[in-house]
Amino acid sequence: MRISVGKLRGLQQISDDTGRFTMIAMDQRGSLQKMLHPENPKAATYVEMEAVKLGVTEALAPHASGYLLDPEYGVGPAVNRFALPGRTGLLVALETSGYEKKGNWRLTTLLEGWSVEKVKKLGASAAKLLVFFNPDAPRDVVDHQVKVVKSVADECRRLDLAFVCEPMSYPVEESEEEFAHHKADAILRTAEVLSPLGIDVLKAEFPGDPKVTPDPEELRKNCDGLTRATKVPWVVLSAGADFDVFRGLVDLACRGGASGFLAGRAIWKDAFQETSLERQLAYIRNQGVKNFQALADLAHTHATPWWDFYGGREKLQDHFDGWYVKY
Predict the structure, then answer these.
(1) H runs (alpha helix) in 66-207
(2) CB 73 within 8 A of CB 53
(3) What pLDDT score does 320 carry?
(4) CB of 123 within 8 A of CB of 159?
(5) CB of 131 closer than 8 Å to CB of 194
(6) pLDDT at residue 317 is higher than 80
(7) Could you give the CA distance from residue 92 to residue 67 in angstroms, rounded to a whole number?
(8) Most buried one in 178, 194, 197, 276, CB count within 10 A?
(9) 3-class DSSP state for residue 177?
(10) Helices of type H across 182-232
(11) What is the DSSP letter of 95?
(12) How far is the C-alpha of 92 from the C-alpha of 106, rounded, in Å?
């Protein structure tokens, strides 16, 4: 497969020199509001949200290969106040926080007033889209979600911007416990549907649940299956898991073909057991950095370099005289 020069540059910027993704997510909005004010999330002010995002970014972004922010509270201040190092790749979210409901099904909505073009315009390395996806949803729901992904993919292709897609599965008319027994299958089937649409990196849920499948080898085989199912490199997301649990999942995912991780709350959420911003940020500067480094060490040891999907770095060294004329 070939990759355009703009997308190639984006992937270079959000990965490290070894071709692994060690990325941190700080694009949370609703979930972060709940951490700040569990009794009344809407009480979280813009000033509070901005201060947390700036502090976490200053502490963690210098260590990451890529850093994911939202446009509402995160990316403007992080750039304007020099919290995000220039050497750290920038990913920016496109979707609204939450989802639109159609019966019991979930529809992704793009953030009004925001676009792929604006993500490109501000100098980001990649655009990120979270899309709720259940492959067993009614055809009109599946079609709507596919259309959203395809529209973003088409814009990223037009603007030559890397595209990271984050499908999130969910149960309908069954409990989370019941869904856990076939969640891995849903994640693999989702990758088969969405990965050919023009995305560049799949930000995937871990394909399985250790509570349901306690055998690590079986879980690793699920990751092998996801590697075969996806048409693009993939990274594992944390979905707010406790750090000790997520560390084990990163190990299995990377052994099973993942190219790294893009994780947020698993790295830094425990800081918000503290009540003051000063103590929260002190925790992140200490334990948060240690958490990240433990995950990065696993990725460097076991993850598959993303360029192996293209047959290796040498396969990407494709250029010709006068290429810029047709670009």
Answers:
(1) 75-80, 116-121, 139-159, 176-180, 183-194
(2) yes
(3) 76
(4) no
(5) yes
(6) no
(7) 8
(8) 194
(9) helix
(10) 183-194, 216-229
(11) B
(12) 22
